[in-house]
Amino acid sequence: MTGVSNLLELNQVSLSFRGVKALNALSFSVEKGKICALIGPNGTGKSSLLNVISGIYRADAGDVVLDGTHFEAIKPGLAARLGIGRTFQHNALFRRLTVRENVLAGLSRHGRATFVENVFRFGRDRDERRSFAERADRIIAFLGLEKDRDRVVSTLSYGTQKRVDLARALVSEPKLLLLDEPMAGMNQDEKKAMSRIISELNKSFGTTIVLIEHDVGIVLGLADHVVVLDYGRKVADGTPDEVRNDPDVIAAYLGTVH
Ligand SMILES: Nc1ncnc2c1ncn2[C@@H]1O[C@H](COP(=O)(O)OP(=O)(O)OP(=O)(O)O)[C@@H](O)[C@H]1O
C-alpha cells in the first residue's frame, strides 16, 4: 500500500535501449518535502530515470506512483500538469530570449494562453498574464536574477544560465522538482551557492526534489536521502550517513571520498 508520506514511488521500473538495460527493476521512494540524490557512475541510468518520471521515456515494465496515483506511463504534458518540474543536463533555455521570457516559458503548459501569448504579452487572458508575470518576477527575485531579468540568455555566464533554468522549472510551483546535474561544469564556489539555493527552495516552498549530482561531497551535505545506482540497479538507498558507511558503496563507488 502506498504510504501517504511518499510523494514518489518507483516500483520495479525497467527500461532497455536495444538490449541495453538502462534501468533494471528499480524500486525506491521519495518522502514528501525531502531532497533525494541519485548518484552513480556515468551511464548507470540516472537521466533515463528522470526521463521516465517526467514522461519523456516510457518504462518497459513497472510503475510510477505520484502522490498515491499509479501511472504506467506519463506523457510530458500530463507530468507538468501533475506538478512535476525539471531541468536538463544541458539546459533547455531559449538562448535568444531574455531571462524573464524564459521564466515565463515555464508556465506555458499551465495556463489558458499560449506560450507565445505569455512570452510576448498579448492575447486573450489579461488576468492570467498578469498573475504569471508576478509569479515569474517573484521567482526571479528569489533566485537573485533581478539585475539580469531583461538580458538575453546567451549573454549570461554558464552558472547564471543554470539558475535561469532552475527558475524556469520552479515558476510553475512544482510539487516534485527533478534536477539533472544542476551543478555540472561549476567551480566549487558556484556549486556551494547552487547547493544553498536548492536547500533554501526546498525549505521555503516545501518542494520535493530528486537531483542527479556527481560531486559526492556536495550530495552528502545536501540530500536527506541518497540512492546509489550501478548499471541500472540500485546498489544502496538510505541517509547520507548510511550510504557513506555502506561497504558495498565504498567498494564500488565512493572509494576514499570523505
Ligand atoms: N535515447 C537513448 N538511446 C539509446 N540508448 C540510451 C538512450 N538514453 C540512454 N541510453 C543508454 O542508457 C544507459 C543509461 O544512460 P543514462 O544517460 O540514463 O545514464 P546516466 O547515469 O544519466 O549517465 P551520465 O551520468 O553520463 O549522464 C547508457 O548505456 C546509455 O547509453
TrEMBL record:
Q: Which InterPro entries does this one have?
A: AAA+_ATPase (IPR003593), ABC_AA/LPS_Transport (IPR051120), ABC_transporter-like_ATP-bd (IPR003439), BCA_ABC_TP_C (IPR032823), P-loop_NTPase (IPR027417)
Q: Which CDD domains match?
A: ABC_Mj1267_LivG_branched (cd03219)
The UniProt keyword set, sorted, is:
ATP-binding, Nucleotide-binding, Transport
Where are the membrane-spanning stretches?
Answer: none
PROSITE patterns associated with the record? ABC_TRANSPORTER_2
* Gene Ontology molecular function: ATP binding
Q: What is this protein called?
A: ABC transporter ATP-binding protein
Which organism's genome codes for this protein?
Answer: Rhizobium wuzhouense
